[in-house]
Amino acid sequence: MQSNKISVQPSLVRLAFCGALASAALPLAAQEADEPTVRSVYVNGAITRISDQEFDLDAFTARVGWNMSKNFGLEAEISLPTGEDNQQFSTFELDRSIGIFPMVRAEPAKNLEIFARAGLIDARVDVEIPSQQSTFEVSQRSAAIGAGAKWYLTRNLGVRAGYTYAKSDAVDVGIEWRF
């Protein structure tokens, strides 16, 4: 007897989650257009875990962003390595990851902001295989999609948590300062 199981790819689930959050944020972003425009610049420092089927890498991510209006912004980020992942036959280390993202933001509650972002990432991972005495670099340039939330403890200081998918998963938690 044959079983009819439906297999869902994890990447499709991630994309559906980010798409659902973005579609929820867009109507919130469109409402109350008569409120004054809030333009601000922010910086963010975060600890990031980048995971793939082959490795789990830790990095420090620095971001700078510009809120062009109340609900739309642009941010750039760079992630640098804080460690390597030693597997049985190989070692992986992040060289760097650079990204740029247009963002949609909404404030469903006071001091809470949710966001969705889609952009481009350029990442490089160094791979070493000691048994073969070889080292090479894996480069990835791809589209990326993500979502997250910010909770502001004061007018300027906040905590941010986010998720980004670009052929690998990246989860980050950090502190944000908006000017």
Molecular structure report:
A hairpin with a 2-residue loop joins strand 5 (91-109) and strand 6. By secondary structure, the protein is mainly beta. The longest helix has 21 residues, at 10-30. It has one helix at 10-30; strands at 40-51, 56-67, 72-81, 84-86, 91-109, 112-129, 134-152, 157-165, 169-178. It is built from 1 helix and 9 strands, in the order αβββββββββ. It is elongated, with a radius of gyration of 19 Å. The protein has an 8-stranded antiparallel beta barrel with strand order 1-2-3-5-6-7-8-9. The relative contact order is 0.19.
Sequence-ordered SSE layout with sheet pairings:
Layout: H1 10-30, E1 40-51, E2 56-67, E3 72-81, E4 84-86, E5 91-109, E6 112-129, E7 134-152, E8 157-165, E9 169-178
Antiparallel strand pairs: 1-2, 1-9, 2-3, 3-5, 4-5, 5-6, 6-7, 7-8, 8-9
Q: Report strand %.
A: over 45%
Low-confidence stretches: 1-8, 24-37
Main β-sheet, in a few words?
A: 8 strands, antiparallel, barrel
Q: What is the CA-based Rg, rounded?
A: 19 Å
Please work out how many helical segments DSSP would assign: 1
Q: Quick one: overall form?
A: elongated
* Structural category: mainly beta
Mean residue pLDDT: 83
Query: Which H/E pattern describes the elements?
Result: HEEEEEEEEE
End-to-end C-alpha gap: 64 Å
User: Helix coverage percent of residues?
Assistant: 10-25%
How many DSSP-defined strands?
A: 9
The side-by-side strand order for the widest beta sheet comes to: 1-2-3-5-6-7-8-9
